[in-house]
Amino acid sequence: MVASEQALVTGKQLDTLCINTIRTLAIDAVQQANSGHPGAPMGLAPVAYCLWQEFLRYDPADPTWLNRDRFVLSNGHASMLLYAMLHLAGVREVDENNQVLKELAMPMEEIKRFRQLGSRTPGHPESHITTGVETTTGPLGQGVGNSVGMAIAGRWLAANFNRPEFEVFDYDVYAMCSDGDLMEGIGGEAASLAGHLKLSNLCWMYDHNGITLDGPASWSFSEDVATRFIGYGWNVTRVTDANDLEMLARAFEVFKNTTDRPTLIIVDSHIGYGSPHKQDTNAAHGEPLGEDEVRLVKKFYGWPEDAKFLVPEGVREHFQDGIGKRGKEARARWSKMFAGYSEKYPELAERLHLMQRRELPAGWDKNLPTFPADAKGIATRESSGKVLNVLAQNIPWLIGGSADLATSNKTTLKFEGAGDFEAGSYAGRNLHFGVREHAMGASVNGLVVSGLRAFGATFFNFSDYMRASIRLAALMEIPSIFVFTHDSIGVGEDGPTHQPIEQLASLRAMPNLIVLRPGDANEVVEAWKIIMQLQSQPVALVLTRQNLPTLDRTKYAAASGTAKGGYILADATGGKPDVILIGTGSEVALCVEAYEKLKAEGVQARVVSMPSWKIFDNQDKAYKDSVLPPSVTARVSVEMAATFGWEHYVGLKGRKIGMHRFGASAPLKDLLKFFCFTTEEVVAEARKAIADK
Ligand SMILES: Cc1ncc(C[n+]2csc(CCOP(=O)(O)OP(=O)(O)O)c2C)c(N)n1
Ligand SMILES: [Mg+2]
Which of 358, 362, 566, 642 has its CA 20 to 30 A from that of 99? Predict the structure, then answer.
């Protein structure tokens, strides 16, 4: 054997050693936790190894590097695969101030604490917990959805920040996914959007292992995925053996050389590779192997059977020589270039700095409108559109779009230079998500984790279609903006299919999501001010289709009270009400009308506008008691939605005017009468509340 052949063999042995280290770390962690999925990491270890070691442009010494390639594990149940990679690559920890620390993001102790309380190794990857996890995955399809937003962000950043001789952004986005990801509707929506936009910086690696949780994939999944993706406009290539590193490398080369479309790499793999039990496609696989089988598998890998959490000598060093060295050099080149860029374009560099810290530019709130009192008024979707257009001019990285309802949602950015984001023309600020609410939600999250402030809009009723993505934004602690218009039976003739009822209550139940339903145009301005200052909470901004009076703020309290979530809008003389009317959104004006009528009849009422329960709940007790004094038990809530939860504010004896059934198709004025959203009704309920107390 000549020397070069010898080196090749040793190299291959080292590759195998590294791959088996990934596998056995996953096996041991799952076994120790007695919970988790070892099979997918065992099958996919060579794919992750080849990608990270040969292609992924990532410096483990700086996981915050702006131009790093992104890796998404959409099949989040294979979380140990990602944790093993983070450990072996030696990725460093980043603190809450975005400072890179000396310590490892994924020390061995954390792998040993897989799935334990307070560990950095939760069952599914959570980006707010673990450095190096780019986005939270687990609900299948979300990760691939995020990856489209990340790829859009990559293209947008390049189009807006790159300058001749300064290629600040040219990163790629890799997403690993499974049968489940591609069965889920969101996966299809996201792939369709990515194909349409010709996002050639996007690569999905599909773990084609022929098995899902219940049994063979063929029980439920038989379409020709390759043909489907070709139909979406993707480049499709295939690796017929997940263990063939050369074939894998060729596939990644194909991706790198494809400049006009996203790439899908279909990888034929064996779940639980090396395990006699796991290769039986009828076997269940979302569980630990069991001690006996762990031994058998380790024997198959040529591994010491008793060793646990073993990282053989040379493995970490090999990663350092591969991804470590490549990443370090790439980042050093980039940093040098970026230093020159910062000198030549200090304003752009500063922008990137602000974006990374989720801060706002100076003057972000300048030129915001104030709306004069107007009885006829303006729909909150309309005033929101005006405010959004001002903010987007002040904040150059505020971008977004609608799921084919921009004209209705009033979210189009119309100022000069706003432009559209289209295939091949990636600088524009208006995204067109098409009728794909779920992929929109996931893409918005992908944009936000990439440093942009992004919004997605649709009818409030269709928030249900993207709820899983909203939930992940809340869990990830990212400030995604979801704009929902047509927020009640106020939709009118479109009828109950389009009239939200339970959406407010259900979104209010979601932890860390801010729900804001402003009551007039000036509350809309205040709502947007709150939204833009959020750094770790997503928002659902809930707006009307129909006009609402713009309240006279010289007569009633200032709209700035919105910042407290709920505030006294109109009060009884001496601040001693007999009854409190609480409304949100379109029902605030109704409460005010009832208040005036009660006042004329000599009844002391107070109106509380409560655009956000959560923000109100976060105020101190003294403030809350001043708005809703415990001694005043005669209370009425008014909201054109399910009343679920209002007892928290009106008390068990309080009265709740709301919707107790689905709506109906009719002109708005008929619906208001039919469902009792009239001044007379509110007055009558207020009187009953006083009588009941
Ligand atoms: C939206 C969603 N539904 C269901 C699950 C539960 N689940 C976890 S893995 C899995 C399917 C496993 O099959 P596949 O996607 O092919 O992954 P593999 O087992 O091959 O790794 C399911 C249904 C989930 N994580 N997300
Ligand atoms: Mg599968």
Answer: 362
